[in-house]
Amino acid sequence: MLPSGTFVPGGAASGKSAWAESFCESSDLTLNYLATGQARDAEMDQRIKIHKDRRNDRWQTIEAPFDLAPALAALDGDSIVLIDCATMWLSNHMLAETDLAAAQDDLLLALQSCAAKWVMVSNEVGHGVVPDNALARQFRDAQGRLNIALAAHADLAVLVTAGLPLTLKGTLP
Q1: How remote is the C-alpha of 74 from its chain's centroid?
Q2: For residues 157 and 170, is the Cβ–Cβ distance under 8 A?
Q3: pTM above 0.70, yes or no
Q4: Of 51, 93, 127, 153, which residue is the catalytic one?
Q5: 3-class DSSP state for residue 74?
Q6: How far is CA 98 from CA 52, 89, 93, 94, 103, in A?
Q7: Is the predicted pLDDT of residue 104 greater than 80, yes or no?
Q8: pLDDT tens by residue, 142-152
Q9: Is 51 a catalytic residue?
């Protein structure tokens, strides 16, 4: 049986999204993909295309770069939603200069009340060097706080490195 909430952190290009997609596809539930990325340039547009091309027609894609609560509230208990990813969601909020604490509280409340099973992908940014500028350090710290909160709200946490899952919390079904 799938857990109600699964957190999937990993480094950039670690295979976390592909692993999370396979994890979701292993269920018989309706598949929903909640996309947080925004194509601000050609390179990001290509990354989004790669992610879209990897998913089959079982997936319904919902684009929500900022407010995830309405999309999560609309899902029923016969669904699973892959939110890809918390890092892009956080970047969107930081660039828009929104209240990060309020946005994080809203996200956690939306996950807690979501009827569907949820899987949240996120970058683990705490393994690198200390960034050389204030904005990058602010982002790293905010991502760390968000990851800690997401892991606390999840029943299952699976770190993905080199495409391989390592269970940090809970038990893989």
Answers
A1: 18
A2: yes
A3: yes
A4: 51
A5: coil
A6: 28, 12, 5, 6, 8
A7: yes
A8: 999 999 999 99
A9: yes
